[in-house]
Design goal:
This protein is of the alpha/beta class. Helices cover 31% and strands 10% of the residues. The strands form two sheets. The protein has a five-stranded parallel sheet. Helix 8 links the parallel strand 7 and strand 8. The chain is globular and about 50 Å long.
Length: 262
């Protein structure tokens, strides 16, 4: 899938797949093409696709091709339940492929002497809200533009002592790299509301945890964000089934070793 602009998850796909397979990756809309990171399980592609780790963007979205897609794994149980209710078939294999990033790109490669006590990574649609908050304007909080270079984005996430984000893949990448992070909601503009966040939380053996920041847009309420994080159950990652469901030869030894875990 290729969306408009530099969408974090979309851009990560060819990078991740190249390092997993050592093969060049090309964009394709042909039947049977491979779809991975992204909330595109119900996107109305022009052909049936092979889908691995994608999720539904909302509970209401529909697609005429759900019965035709070859689902190998999905982001979480809410997506799987929706597929089955739509008449499709889907194995009980969960996981967002972005969780494999630390296996391929070790955390140490992104560490820098300069760190941020708190970073703020808004969903792109919340960026104009974020850039005008007091602690961002006075540089107390590091604002990360998720539309920037993906490696710079990961570097800024990893170089943070604490992250506040309204982006699903901001949350996923931070948790994958074991960076303290809280999901906060700043607007009603992110498509799908809580659905995709619940899907991810459920796939990691948790109920949704978040701080509703919509009524406080002048500045970040950091103490509330810290308290929300303290109440958050940490994720339980089991990536072996996701890796085993990958349909191509894996050449990356550390990724391949995950498939052998119980």
């Amino acid at each position: 899938y290729k969306g408009d602009g530099n969408n974090f998850g979309d851009v990560l796909n060819p990078i991740l797949l190249y390092h997993m397979t050592s093969k060049s990756i090309i964009f394709s809309q042909e039947a049977g093409s491979f779809v991975a990171i992204g909330s595109v399980a119900y996107y109305n592609f022009s052909n049936y696709m092979t889908i691995w780790g994608s999720g539904a963007i909302s509970k209401n979205v529909q697609s005429r091709l759900i019965k035709d897609h070859n689902f190998l794994a999905v982001r979480g149980p809410k997506t799987r339940e929706k597929i089955i209710r739509s008449g499709g078939t889907c194995p009980e294999v969960y996981g967002d492929p972005a969780l494999l990033l630390p296996v391929i790109f070790e955390k140490e490669k992104f560490l820098t002497p300069e760190t941020s006590r708190v970073s703020f990574l808004p969903h792109w649609i919340d960026y104009n809200i974020a850039k005008n908050m007091k602690s961002v304007l006075n540089k107390e909080v590091n604002l990360i533009d998720i539309r920037g270079n993906v490696f710079n984005t990961i570097k800024e996430i990893v170089s943070s002592d604490f992250l506040v984000t309204s982006s699903l893949h901001g949350l996923i990448v931070a948790e994958a790299y074991n960076i303290p992070v809280v999901f906060a909601r700043f607007s009603d503009n992110v498509t799908g509301g809580y659905f995709k966040f619940e899907d991810y939380f459920n796939s990691t053996d948790r109920e949704l945890n978040f701080f509703d920041h919509r009524n406080n847009l002048d500045d970040l309420l950091l103490e509330n964000c810290f308290k929300t994080y303290d109440q958050k159950k940490q994720p339980n990652f089991n990536l072996a089934p996701l890796v085993r469901s990958f349909p191509f030869d894996i050449t990356h030894k550390k990724v391949l070793s995950l498939a052998e875990e119980a």
